[in-house]
Amino acid sequence: MIIDCHGHYTTTPPGVAAYREAQKEILKRDPDHVFEKGDVVVSDDEIRESILSNQLRLQRDRGTDLTIFSPRASWMGHHVGNASTSQAWTEQQNDLIKRVCTLFPENFVPVCQLPQSPETGIEASVRELERCVNGMGFIGCNLNPDPSGGFWKDARLGDRYWYPFYEKMVELDVPAMIHVSGACQHSLDTTSSYYLGADTTAFVHLMFSEVFVDFPKLKIIIPHGGGAVPYHWGRFRGIAQDKGLGDLDERVLGNIYFDTCVYHQKGIDLLLDVIPTENILFASEMIGAVRGVDPHSGHYYDDTKRYIDGNKRLDARERELIFSGNAMKVFSRLDVQRIRGDQA
Ligand SMILES: [Zn+2]
Questions:
Q1: Is 250 a catalytic residue?
Q2: What is the architecture, at CATH level 2, of domain 3-343?
Q3: Looking at residue 338, what is its pLDDT?
């Protein structure tokens, strides 16, 4: 089985954008408007069509089996409006993901976004995680380390601000993928400098913190191959050593995992050389940031299975860990037996 641990619903029917645009229109008139959840007008047929012709088609073309699926990350937009804006939008987005996974139970498993809002308490996110995991069978969440969209106004990930959320993650035994949303800071570009910079920043927050001492069972996935982290592992190891933080591998590798959303062979080879196999989860983030074909290879940049297949060092056991074994361990609520039963 091949599990893609990083997919977003980027091809939503028009009713989803219409809901969000209506929120933004209201905010233009009244920034303090208190939002109710309301309704997203999308039919099951529209959802089916949007998945069949996009994500499911590519799953089949590329030979992957299951996608761990979450709302479109660049649309989480935690900086838009106020806390009630984020709450209503997030609940709708998570309900929509649940509908996709109910319609396609053999191919998609749900992961939630959180109703974060800049300079606002984390309690609403704790409640939404509980609603999604206990109430709707979600197996993880996307945690935004910078709800301000590029201004980094909120506490670092090592701060106690986040601790009630980490406690809930451990209690529910679900991992978080670190994932920022759209950048609204003028010098940042969302899916390139902002995403990769935020992945790197989040890693550093955590390596400098006591989070994994206080929460030894916490599981964090850094996406996009870990941003700059694997490439600069020597720098981070040296900084940890200079600061008296000990061996970096021992400090973080019991808790941090990296995905394989790296869009060229040499980048994947480096990731696989530097980071232990047990800490790498297969992912493509399709249909996402990069949608074109690489003229050098003739294949889609985000067809990352080809790079894992193309690596010359991995043996069969290591490939199996990256393609599914590690994901089953990290996403411990992923019930592969049930999914395989459904497929039988
Ligand atoms: Zn993503």
A1: no
A2: Alpha-Beta Barrel (3.20)
A3: 79
